[in-house]
Amino acid sequence: MTPESKDRGPEAPDTKDRGPEAPDTKDRGRRKVMTGTVVSAAMQKTVVAQIERLVKDPDYGKYVRRRNRFKIHDEKSECKVGDVIRFMETRPLSKDKRWRLLDFVKRVER
Q1: What's the pTM?
Q2: CA-CA distances (angstroms) from residue 61 to 56, 58, 64, 68?
Q3: 84 CB-contact burial (10 Å; exposed 0-12 / middle 13-18 / buried 19+)
Q4: Given a cut of 70, is residue 33 above it in pLDDT?
Q5: Rg (CA), the chain
Q6: Minimal CA–CA distance to 37: which of 110, 107, 96, 89?
Q7: Hey, which residues does 105 pair with through a beta bridge?
């Protein structure tokens, strides 16, 4: 018996020709969109935005502030500290930067 003629079980489906109804392609393109406040604009073409939320402590019942900070690509360097922005998930642009600026929700007057 040669290794080529061994029964290897059912054949794997062809992954190259999936068509428009492929199960894993219909969710493609749905990237997270978040809203946050710019807390740092000191880098070139990058801003840091922060999202703050209140979470109830399970033991004490007290509400605690939780913060997440995101590095966001700002191609035109138009964000200022205090702006409220919408940003979207994208491919990795650097070690920490995986988000890009979509638009402004509220701009700070300077």
Answers
A1: 0.69
A2: 6, 6, 9, 21
A3: middle
A4: yes
A5: 23
A6: 107
A7: none
